[in-house]
Design a protein that fits this description.
One of its GO terms (biological process) is cell division. This protein has 711 residues and is of the alpha+beta class. It has a six-stranded mixed beta sheet with strand order 11-6-1-2-3-19, with helices on both faces. A five-stranded mixed beta sheet has the order 14-13-12-17-18, with helices on both faces. A five-stranded mixed beta sheet has the order 21-20-26-24-25, covered by helices on one side. Helix 4 (195-203) crosses helix 9 (373-382). The model has no long low-confidence stretch (mean pLDDT 84). The chain is built from 14 helices and 44 strands.
Length: 711
């Protein structure tokens, strides 16, 4: 601060308090103070709603103080806990080679923990836009050295030091409105803290923090909460419910202007038994203070319950005692309402005044009020190690960072919400394909790395930042996925020269992708199956030549029903009968055979091989004799199954199943023609060596002999 002066402003919902002090003999001597209330409701719930109105009050307070102490350019302020976000964070430091630890080592560990909290907030999803939240203060929960909890690291030696802190964050709009009002009156924000942090630092010293105490700063718009236990501050919280709610109740109940109702509320705790006021209708009233207090009882109980609910949520149990500060703490019967809501003795809830504070001297009588605790705490922190701002611009966006000893480019990108990983540029997705049964991987292109410029010079993430630095960040470009063509991954087979039915042709062998024909310039996709080594088949050649095999259909009437019989064409390659999947080579000649009409047996499905004939020896020669007998008529005339079937003819088929063959059937099967016998001859038939007749039955394995002799 200028000339070692410490300037603190408590910009509250109802009033602004300014204090100026000077560090002297290890304490702060208070030199001047000033207070002014807002002329309108320019602030609500701790948030500035009218910057110009607030700035006018700040300017008046600043001017009166400057008239006493001289020019003031830097100021310490505190923010109310509106929309407060609180995180616990920890950090560790290797200290084996550091020797005796110093205050700077302790400070470095504190700042490392705050940076951890910032990183956790940025990735936790707890708030919609982490870049719009600022760290406004922190409290050390505990230090540790080689896993042993310790009060302070200064002067100690060990291998590994640790820390746990509570870091508090507020939305950017809360801080920005404070900054704007301060800059309007020509001041620079030197340090910023949270109101309950300021209050607890002067009211509950470290020697009292082993107790489970709750400090509640009841202002006009918010009630801020801080809790101590086990030697440290364990939690901060906020209730958007405070003194203005009581003023509103009085205003509504008695039809008063808000400012008049505020004046009436402040007189309730005084010695006057009756209060006089004029309502908005111009009527004068003189009512007992008790009547007005009774009208606020329900709202006071509601305020006490709201504060108790927040305390129990943060502390999980009723505390040992509650300390009330702030102007709203003077609300009649608030201590009793809060004690009842917490179910603790009313004597354990007390209003505290800064009659004497450790580290601050020269406190005048007019500041020995509950609402002076917070501004005195801000002044005390102004001379300590509170956080201060560094102003950075990232891609034309102003970013205010808290000066955490050594700020780097990485901190600025984190605060701006830029994913550091996006600077690298990821490689494009590759493709996996199979070529003739062999798996191949085709990589995507490499990503293009991004760039960070500080002014016109490239910088690294670890580069140290200074106030007013300007960064221009260009994100990396991701690589692209490959788009190979079929001809890029496999050699296309050579053309095949063939003849088909006397004509010469040149054909390209077929290459398939996933079983489908594909051209050489087909773009491949991931997991494609490519087959290029099969060559050109007869079926593929016929398809390319427009000679796709088509059956010839024959129509008949079989036993009175229409029947269709299809005859598929047959082909030869180099005069050899070939199947459709036969491979072709250059110089091959293909011929389409002219097929005869189907036989009656083919149409009727007669297959002598499947009729299971019996075997008989005829004159010592094996002779198969059918046991199934077919009678075929074509257009009414007998016919054999081997004869061609005339197109559109009427065919009748009679089949005798399980027929017992006769000797005559054996002679017929052996193609014996009786007309071939000599005119003067005698025929003797033997069945298994015994004489028999033409009508005798035969069975499988019988022997039939026919002997011819002259008469």
């Amino acid at each position: 601060m200028d000339n070692q002066l410490l300037f603190a402003l408590d910009i509250g919902t109802r009033s602004v308090v300014g204090l100026v002090g000077k560090a002297e003999n290890g304490a702060i001597k208070l030199l001047a103070s000033d207070r002014e209330e807002h002329h309108t409701r320019a602030m609500l719930d701790g948030q500035i709603h009218d910057v110009r109105e607030v700035a006018e009050v700040l300017a008046s307070v600043k001017a009166r103080l400057e008239a006493t102490v001289g020019p003031l350019t830097k100021v310490a302020v505190a923010a109310a806990g509106r929309a407060l976000c609180t995180l616990r964070a920890a950090a560790e430091l290797e200290t084996a080679s550091r020797g005796t630890l110093t205050q700077e080592d302790e400070r470095s560990l504190e700042l490392a923990a705050i940076q951890t909290a910032q990183a956790e907030l940025a990735t936790s999803g707890a708030v919609p836009d982490p870049a719009d939240y600022y760290c406004v203060g922190y409290s050390v929960v505990n230090f540790s050295l080689d896993s042993t909890r310790i009060k302070s690291l200064v002067g100690q030696r060990g291998k590994r030091a640790g820390i746990e802190v509570i870091a508090t964050f507020l939305p950017r709009q809360v801080i920005d409105s404070l900054q704007s009002a301060i800059q309007t009156v020509g001041l620079e924000m030197a340090t910023l803290t949270l109101e309950p942090i300021a209050a607890i630092n002067v009211l509950i010293p470290s020697t009292m923090r082993h107790l489970n105490l709750v400090l509640v700063d009841v202002g006009a718009g918010t009630s801020d909460v801080a809790i101590t236990r086990d030697g440290s501050v364990i939690a901060y919280g906020m209730v958007p419910f405070a003194g203005d709610e009581i003023t509103e109740t009085i205003s509504q109940q008695f039809l008063l202007d808000f400012n008049v109702a505020e004046t009436v509320k402040r007189q309730l705790g005084g010695k006057n038994k009756k209060l006089s006021f004029t309502d908005v209708l111009g009527m004068d009233h003189k009512l007992p203070a008790k009547t007005i207090i009774d009208a606020t009882t329900a709202k006071v109980a509601e305020l006490g319950q709201a504060i108790a609910t927040e305390i129990l949520a943060l502390n999980t149990a009723a505390p040992q005692a509650v300390l009330l500060v702030g102007g709203g703490a003077l609300t009649p019967f608030l201590p009793e309402a809060l004690a009842q809501a917490l179910d603790i003795p009313s004597a354990r809830v007390a209003i505290r005044r800064p009659d004497s504070l450790e580290g601050i001297t020269g406190i005048p009588a007019e500041l020995c009020t509950p609402d002076a605790v917070t501004p005195l705490g801000i002044l005390k922190l102004a001379g300590g190690r509170a956080l201060n701002f560094v102003n950075i611009t990232v891609n034309e966006r102003p970013i205010r960072l808290f000066n955490l000893s050594r700020l780097t480019v990485a901190d600025a990108l984190l605060a701006a919400g830029i994913d550091i990983r996006a600077l690298r540029g990821r490689p494009g997705m590759g493709l996996t394909i199979t070529v003739n049964g062999e798996t191949r991987f085709i990589a995507g292109s490499h990503g293009t790395p991004g760039q960070i410029l500080q002014g016109s010079q490239p910088v690294q993430l670890s580069t140290t930042l200074n106030d007013q630095d300007v960064l221009v960040v260009t994100l990396g470009a991701d690589g692209t996925a490959p788009a190979p063509l079929l001809k890029d991954v496999t050699a296309m087979p050579a053309p095949v020269n063939i003849k088909a039915n006397g004509k010469s042709y040149t054909l390209e062998p077929q290459v398939t992708i996933n079983g489908q024909p594909a051209a050489a310039d087909t773009v491949l996709r991931d997991r494609d199956q490519i087959d290029s080594h099969k060559g050109l088949t007869l079926a593929q050649a016929l398809h390319k030549l427009g000679l796709k095999p088509e059956p010839v259909e024959h129509i008949y009437q079989v036993n009175g029903a229409k029947r269709s019989y299809k005859v598929w064409p047959k082909y030869t390659i180099n005069h050899q009968l070939a199947s459709l999947d036969s491979l072709l080579a250059s110089g091959d000649a293909i011929e389409t055979l002219k097929l005869p009409p189907p036989t009656l047996g083919e149409i009727l499905g007669i297959n002598t091989e499947t009729d299971a004939p019996i075997t008989v020896l005829f004159n010592g020669v094996t002779c198969p004799v059918p046991i199934r007998r077919h009678s075929i008529l074509v257009d009414g005339r007998p016919a054999e199954s081997s004869q061609p079937a005339p197109l559109h003819s009427a065919i009748e088929l009679i089949t005798a199943a399980d027929y017992q063959p006769l000797i005559s059937d054996v002679l017929l099967a052996a193609d014996f023609d009786p007309r071939s016998l000599p005119a003067a001859s005698r025929v003797t038939l033997l069945l298994n060596g015994l004489p028999t007749e033409y009508t005798a039955f035969v069975k499988n394995g019988d022997s039939v002999d026919l002997k011819i002799s002259e008469i």
